[in-house]
Specification:
Order of helices and strands of chain B: HHHHHHHHHEEHHHHHHHHHHHHHH
Largest sheet of chain A: 6 strands, mixed
Radius of gyration of chain A: 22 Å
Order of helices and strands of chain A: HEHEHEEEHEHEHEHEEHHEH
Strand order of the largest sheet of chain A: 2-1-3-10-4-11
Chains: A alpha/beta, B mainly alpha, C mainly alpha
Structural class of chain A: alpha/beta
Structural class of chain B: mainly alpha
Oligomer: heterotrimer
Number of strands of chain B: 2
């Protein structure tokens, strides 16, 4: 009896799906890869309501944390490719393979929108015995193994920046103190637990404005208009031009195989949402560079990002497995 | 003068006042249901209040926060199932009172004490925020580590049966906290190469299983026993009672504010530390601790509500969250076009005073709703057990799932429920397990940070400890508490006292 | 010594041992030995934790797990030895005091719930669970049982699903379509 009833319910569901072809016909799940209150969470929660308006549907956002975001990635990758489950994530999955964190990355997904890119910078504790990037490098050379750098684990922004410094300057003998995010690390920096922290500009800007930490250099090809007094790192060493601009990014993804019209609808909705003036103001205030790209452009950006970063880390000896094993080509090859 | 006006904003606008009230009311129920957390409620409110102005949005969130921290005590007292981690210590003495039919008194005392604790927290926030945040910033990784060890020593006061069993439970908790990918190096720990284990075990799932499901399973032993009739005539505690506990509540509130203000520690640890403190300083409680001592209710409840004000201190002065809820509020301010950070107090001082005003209001609403809705709540315990037990189990399941939207958390919760059932039968305390899980990361991460900073040199590490007055004080506290818990100390004390008596 | 409760044990409070203080409860020794074995196994597993990106010294991710599992093993051994010395409580039996039939039945129900949750979905699984559980415990009429079960399930579903948007596995029930239907209805009515 029960089985008949359930079967009938199922049949109704199926006919309902067939009859109403208009996407979205039910609410969409948005899985946020990081915890509530983090920067990915904030960005997604501020753009999605605008995208919902453009889409004419409901997107229910949920945080799914754990294993550096791999739990959320695997969850969405394993769900139906029907456009009802979105992954809202940051750049980390591009490095999962070479860090031995998982077998999947964004190549298993279709990008809906790469929303924005952050700019990295170096900040130091106010009492640190150097005030500029060059002074810092001189100090480290004179006092090897004493300066404490904050880090956020293998593959995190600080590890990429330190790898970049090592490649360009040749050797960086510092102590890397691990934190579980740039927020706690910047707190540690202000309390004097670490001396230097490579962080995204948006996370450090308020602390700099208040004079609680001092900026050393912006890791970009030009100074940021948010902090015009802070020199770009290429001014000190133009060897960085090879690797910059580089930065962490935020994006919305669906599993590969999602129908094209659904992808198009979602991309259009997020493109529209990202144009909202409130959202633009919010992102620019935090020093993010808006991108709003999708489709082939986004795919090209992702693969270029992955190649550059993966080989940078590989050459600095920070990876667990070589990018070659996963067919990630060296940039320029 | 301007700040006074900002402070009064919330009192003069009926709409904001109503939102704080609604928030507090909802918060009490959110907090009371195990698995529905304030963190969850506030993060949902971010999307919900997206199009609102910032003032109404913040009013609602603060109400939920204040009410939720308090609400956790309700189910702890009535069902022995803490609605939130910060109410674990409340269950230790609150539930024995409910078993005597004194749930009304227990809830009354809890409410008034939460109110007092809340006010002390808000007072410190309003008057001394910059000072406290300077102090909190001074905590180095090694100080956090010593604080974690201090916390682990609480196992002694949470183990009512056997201390050895308590130590086992505490160590088990620390091991449970280490499961999954280590957040610092991404190394797999205790995962047995299973993908299911990589995300670790949610400590809320452990808590719900150990306290919720195992309690429900135990209750099956006496399904047919009639529920205890609760006297709810004398809910508001007498002035004398409040006066008697005032000195203790000031002390435990201070613990709450400081622990709440430290980034990375919150109301849960504060409440447990306060409970331990009460046990230490209360010379002769009317009833022994663990059997319904009033002090055992006063301490954790003042501390966890004082921690609310404390958590806002680093948030308002530095833009650093004091706990998970303030972390989300920082995100909310950001979305509403403000720049939370150290400049917020200078750029927008009105925001600071408005938040203080909302907190004061929420605290009053908490007192009001806390003292009025008791009859309805006590009806829950008087429900027939044959309905109550299955419902507790179902709520535990949904609650465990809701934490991280994961079915594996449900499996963990059920597993720990059955395991906790056996632990209860054989006299292993459950409190230390949760304590271990809460402190695991604090201990592990900061120990490693501290020792990496000293390049793995223990000599340098101790040199660092003694070079800093703060670390030295913490180390001395750790040693004193440790010694006072070991039998050698008790024996030495007995000897000393004997000798004195003979001399006289 | 004092008997904690005339009904064999009270056991409802955290850490209050049931049974008599100076006697060993049935199964207690087995439990202590199982914990010792598990601790030993976990200690070995902790030893095997390798730091992929650095040295395995004091600062390695292995340090604290190793210390914790070692403490578990030592304390479990102490408990086992202590328990071994206590005389067995002959007034208690496993079937009556530790694992009565109802408890086993409920443990089985919970396991069944866990297994069915994903394929069947939250609503049907919970409805079945509540109906069976309340029927067994209350032994009242079907009408009453089903009414109470479905009534409380709807309340729980409304709170978690609608207010807190916790998306429990929907299984065979087309929950999302159902909600969208109502959403369209209210939106249509409002416009």
């Amino acid at each position: 009896m029960k089985r008949v009833l359930l079967g009938a319910l199922g049949a109704i569901a199926l006919t309902a799906t067939a009859a109403v072809a208009e996407y979205p016909e039910k609410e969409i799940q948005g899985i946020i890869q990081w915890g509530a209150g983090g920067s990915t969470d904030t960005v997604m929660r501020s753009v999605t309501p605008h995208a919902e308006e453009a889409l004419g549907g409901t997107i229910v956002m949920q945080n799914m944390t754990g294993a550096v975001g791999a739990i959320a990635l695997n969850h969405v990758a394993g769900s139906d490719a029907d456009g009802y489950t979105l992954l809202m994530g940051a750049e980390n999955p591009m490095l999962y393979k070479i860090m031995g964190l998982g077998e999947k990355d964004y190549t298993a997904f279709t990008p809906i929108s790469i929303l924005a890119r952050g700019t990295p910078m170096l900040v130091a504790n106010n009492d640190a015995p150097f005030d500029t990037y060059s002074e810092m490098m001189d100090y480290i050379k004179a006092n090897p193994g004493t300066v404490r750098f904050g880090s956020t684990g293998p593959g995190g922004l600080p590890s990429v920046i330190t790898a970049m410094i090592e490649t360009v300057e040749g050797g960086l003998d510092v102590i890397a103190v691990p934190y579980d995010g740039d927020g706690p690390a910047l707190t540690g920096l202000q309390g004097g637990a670490i001396d230097v922290m490579p962080a995204v500009l948006g996370a450090a800007i308020e602390g700099i404005r208040a004079g609680n930490m001092k900026p050393l250099a912006v890791f970009d090809t030009a100074a940021s208009d948010k902090l015009p007094d802070v020199p770009a790192v290429v001014d000190a060493n133009d060897g960085y031009n090879t690797y910059l601009p580089w930065g962490p990014f935020f994006g919305v993804f669906v599993p590969k195989g999602t129908p094209e019209d659904v992808v198009a609808k979602l991309s259009a909705a997020y493109a529209e949402g990202a144009k909202n003036p409130e959202f633009i103001e919010l992102m620019e205030g935090r020093g993010f560079t808006l991108m709003g790209i999708s489709g082939d452009e986004a795919e090209a950006f992702l693969s270029k990002w992955q190649q550059g970063t993966a080989w940078l880390l590989q050459d600095a000896g920070l990876t667990k497995m070589s990018p070659e094993e996963f067919g990630i080509a060296r940039p320029g090859e | 003068m301007g700040s006074l006006m900002d402070f009064l904003t919330v009192f003069t606008q009926p709409q904001l006042l109503a939102l704080v009230g609604v928030g507090t009311f909802a918060g009490v129920y959110v907090g009371a249901i195990p698995g529905l957390s304030v963190t969850m409620a506030v993060s949902i409110l971010i999307s919900f209040t997206f199009s609102w102005d910032v003032y109404p949005a913040i009013s609602l969130m603060i109400g939920i926060y204040m009410g939720g921290v308090y609400g956790g005590s309700r189910t702890a007292i009535l069902l022995n199932i803490p609605g939130a981690p910060s109410a674990i210590a409340t269950a230790l003495d609150g539930y024995p009172m409910a078993k005597r039919g004194e749930a009304g008194t227990a809830i009354g005392v809890t409410t008034v004490m939460s109110f007092i604790g809340g006010f002390i927290g808000i007072g410190v926030l309003a008057l001394a925020a910059p000072m406290v945040s300077d102090f909190a910033l001074r905590f180095q990784p090694r100080d956090y580590m010593l604080l974690a060890i201090l916390g682990i020593l609480l196992v002694g006061s949470l183990s009512q049966g056997s201390l050895v069993k308590g130590i086992f439970a505490g160590a088990l908790g620390i091991a449970i906290g280490a499961v999954g990918r280590d957040p610092l190096t991404f190394t797999e720990r205790f995962t047995f190469d299973l993908q299911l284990m990589e995300g670790g075990i949610s400590f809320i799932a452990v808590m719900i299983g150990m306290f919720g499901v195992s309690e429900a399973l135990l209750q099956l032993h006496h399904v047919d026993k009639a529920a205890v009739r609760q006297k709810i005539s004398r809910v508001v505690p007498s002035i004398a009672t409040v006066k008697k506990h005032l000195p203790l509540s000031v002390q435990t509130s201070t613990i709450g504010v400081v622990i709440g203000a430290l980034p990375g520690t919150g109301g849960d640890i504060a409440a447990l530390m306060a409970y331990d403190h009460a046990k230490r300083v209360t010379k002769d409680p009317e009833r022994p601790f663990g059997e319904g001592a009033m002090e055992g209710l006063v301490a954790p409840e003042t501390a966890n509500n004082a921690a609310v004000g404390g958590a806002f201190i680093p948030m308002m002065t530095l833009g650093i969250p004091g706990d998970a809820v303030t972390a989300i509020m920082i995100g909310a301010l950001f979305i509403h076009g403000l720049n939370p950070g150290p400049m917020l107090m200078i750029d927008k001082p009105d925001m600071f005073w408005f938040i203080v005003g909302c907190l004061v209001m929420a605290n009053f609403f908490m007192l009001l709703f806390g003292l009025t809705g008791i009859r309805l709540f006590t009806k829950i315990v008087e429900m027939p057990r044959s309905v109550l037990i299955p419902l507790i189990m179902l709520l535990s399941i949904v609650g465990a799932y809701a934490v991280n939207n994961s079915v594996s958390d449900v499996y963990w919760m059920l597993g720990f429920g059955v395991f906790g059932y056996f632990m209860r039968h054989y006299g292993y305390p459950l409190g230390p397990v949760i304590l271990g899980v809460i402190l695991s990361r604090l201990l592990d991460d900061n120990w490693r940070r501290a020792i990496i900073t000293e390049r793995e040199d223990l000599g340098l590490f101790f040199k660092g400890v003694f070079a800093s007055p703060l670390s030295t004080v913490l180390l001395v506290a750790v040693i004193l508490i440790f010694v006072s818990q070991t039998p050698i100390w008790a024996r030495a004390k007995a000897k000393l006292l004997n000798r004195k008596e003979r001399v006289q | 010594m004092q008997h904690l409760d005339p009904d064999h044990h009270d056991g409802t409070s955290d850490a209050t041992p049931g049974g008599e203080r100076d006697k060993r409860r049935p199964g207690e020794l087995l439990f202590a030995m199982a914990l010792t074995g598990a601790s030993l196994f976990l200690l070995f597993d902790a030893w095997g934790i390798e730091n992929a990106f650095g040295p395995n010294g004091l600062s390695s991710p292995r340090a604290i797990p190793l210390a914790a599992t070692a403490a578990m093993l030592i304390s479990a051994l102490l408990v086992t030895v202590k328990t071994l010395r206590l005389p067995l409580d002959r007034t208690e039996t496993v079937m009556k005091d530790i694992l009565p039939v109802t408890v086993i039945l409920f443990a089985a129900l919970l396991i069944a719930y866990g297994v069915l949750l994903r394929p069947l979905g939250f609503l049907p699984t919970s409805a079945l669970f509540l109906i069976v559980a309340i029927k067994v415990l209350a032994r009242r009429g079907w009408f009453w049982t089903i009414g109470i079960s479905l009534g409380s399930l709807v309340v729980i579903w409304l709170i978690f699903r609608i207010v807190f948007s916790v998306l429990m596995p929907s299984g065979v029930v087309p929950e999302a379509e159902f909600i969208q239907f109502f959403r369209n209805l209210t939106a249509g009515g409002g416009a």
